[in-house]
Amino acid sequence: MNRSRILVLSIFLLFTAVSIAQVGIGTQTPEGALDLETTSYGLVYPRVALTAKNVSAPVVNPQGGPLAVGTVIYNTSNTANGSNDISPGIYAWDGSEWAVQFIREDYQKFDQTGGCQRTTIRESNSDPNPNDADDIAGLTNQTFTPVYSGTYRVEVKVNFGAGEIDDFQSSDAISLATMEGAFFFTMSGVGVDIDPTSSYYDYSEGWSYCHAYAAHNEEESPALEDSNMTHYASLVYYLYLRSGENYNFNLSNCMYTGHAYFKNNGDSGDGRGHIGHDIPCSVEFMFIEE
Fold this sequence. Notes:
Number of strands: 18
Shape: elongated
Largest sheet: 6 strands, antiparallel
Structural class: mainly beta
CATH class of the domain at 107-289: Mainly Beta
Distance between the termini: 66 Å
Mean pLDDT: 81
Helix content: under 10%
CATH architecture of the domain at 107-289: Sandwich
Strand content: 35-45%
CATH topology of the domain at 107-289: Jelly Rolls
């Protein structure tokens, strides 16, 4: 074989190698290892039903050995095992687990309804019982169903205002009284239910102390009264919730001190406390991670 033939063969082999290294679909001039050109079709990833985030199977390496880092699939399954759960979407294998390649958002807020609500139940001592409390309208026997399995940030926002002080029976021209109690949050299946037999000081979760002041000033004419000094509080939980499961929750309130200073002992009329006085109480659920 002469030199001319050898040169022609070498050039042919070089162009063949280049054409194999660059594949174009819909184009004759691919600008990458794979170049797809279309105005009406999409790229369909391999559709696989994964069982857990940390399990590569059923996807395998056709050459044998461990699954190649960077392997991409579309997962079709939705698990609720309690750990390493996955949702339908695109995942890439990072060497030890399937990494999510899409944004997952789930948010829902439940608000108190009907405007400011007056307290009707109070305890005679400082051991409030969540089973004997005022259910809050719009936040009673509500159900949240998460889209994904994973950790949710659950924030319970409450606010409370005291009732009006009773007419003065002393020579004091200025008086200040506080009304105290508790908000209770219970939710099925996640361990925030409250033990009603415990002292309120022992509650580890599921409740929030609340108090508010009412003032009366007779040095002014006419006398000034203020029962709108609202106390704001919140409870925040980080809970692992499972996709598709219905979680029932309830928010309630009861009062237990300070009523002797309020009109009608705080049992009726304007002497009762205000629940959600300025801003409705609320419960918010937000997905934050797997």
